[in-house]
Amino acid sequence: MTASLDIADLKARAKRRVPKMFFDYADSGSYTQSTYRANEEDFGRIKLRQRVLVDMANRSLKTTMVGHPVSMPVALAPTGLTGMQHADGEILAAQAAEEAGVPFTLSTMSICSIEDVAAHTKSPFWFQLYVMKDRDFVGSLIDRARAAGCSALVLTLDLQILGQRHNDIRNGLSTPPKFTPKHIWQMATRPFWCLDMLKTKRRTFGNIVGHAKNVSDLSSLSTWTAEQFDPQLSWKDVEWIRQRWGGKLILKGVLDVEDAEMAARTGADALIVSNHGGRQLDGAPSSISALPRIAEAVGDRIEVHMDGGIRSGQDVLKALALGARGTFIGRPFLYGLGAGGREGVKLALEIIRREMDTTLALCGRREISGATREIIAESPF
Ligand SMILES: Cc1cc2nc3c(=O)[nH]c(=O)nc-3n(C[C@H](O)[C@H](O)[C@H](O)COP(=O)(O)O)c2cc1C
């Protein structure tokens, strides 16, 4: 992996190591994928301001996210099926995040369970909650996250019904994987992935199977999601969840100023400007283009984070400059994981850290708090 200089290198390597159905699962948006593409492309339309002959010594990227100290404002976003990019993926990614001093967020739809990740890490991680119709099960997930010492709950608001990802259907994505000749071929051509997968017992949804009523296996992800996720989730439920949890609460998936106003009124600690990495409403604006108006409207009342399309340290700085207090990365760490397990995630974080550090200096700043609108030369947003 020494030859991996940027996130694109890690992506290329992951593509060679991860079976197609799981690589595509990560590397897809919904429908025409226009929002997925816009998330990345819109960062390129923002230009940074080059400054010279200012003191660039002794730089620091340290700050806080929802009051937690972080070595840089970059958390790992919750991603389902992470343990299919690499065996034991959630545990390895959480360990890499711990070493790097950034938060790891475990998805409800993870392969490794909350308890399993807690048993293999020392620092508290964050837990992401999807709300199912079975409120007893939702309540028990919240209680399990608290018992495991999770230090923030990330409540996802933008996936009560599933945006269609054509690749997942074409590839017959399911977990545990089906064994049709096509799938067997995909796996046979990825021997390292297979060997690691044979060595682990963690191959289905650890938080769900054996915990939710009448769920012993999840043969089709999309059918299960359609049956279980609650399409009637409302702001009232957010209040119920906030009270039941009682700790730091982050609302994920806000893209509209009116919704941001509602989110600010809930008493949550932060919101994440996000379109689920372009995997839900295709045709929605990119996260980075939606960020400035939301930060302007509610940034003094609730901490504003963002995710979607970040592929470099420069992108993180642009997000901070346009009003984010913190950021999350999804695919960049998944590519690292697919490329090289825990070391790959560490490398993804290190690449972003180094890019951010150098870029901050070249913009004439030494502290991350200096990444304000003033470091932007031009922005269409
Ligand atoms: C493969 C994959 C799985 C995801 N699963 C979840 C999930 O289980 N829960 C959730 O809230 N968001 C999920 N997301 C969305 C991410 O948390 C995040 O919003 C998105 O990945 C950010 O965009 P980026 O990948 O361009 O960084 C997923 C994203 C990807 C790529």
From TrEMBL:
Co-factor requirement: FMN
GO cellular component terms, semicolon-separated: plasma membrane
Record's protein name: Alpha-hydroxy-acid oxidizing protein
Protein keywords: Flavoprotein, FMN, Oxidoreductase
Species in which this protein is naturally found: Ectorhizobium quercum
Alphabetical list of InterPro entries matching this protein: Aldolase_TIM, Alpha-hydoxy_acid_DH_FMN, FMN-dep_DH, FMN_HAD, FMN_hydac_DH_AS
GO biological process per UniProt: aerobic respiration
Catalytic residues as annotated in Swiss-Prot or TrEMBL: 276
Family statement: Belongs to the FMN-dependent alpha-hydroxy acid dehydrogenase family.
Annotated positions binding glyoxylate: 25, 165, 276, 279
Occurrences of domain FMN hydroxy acid dehydrogenase (ranges): 1-381
GO MF terms, alphabetically ordered: FMN binding; L-lactate dehydrogenase (NAD+) activity
Chain positions recorded as FMN binding sites: 78-80, 107, 128, 130, 156, 252, 274, 307-311, 330-331
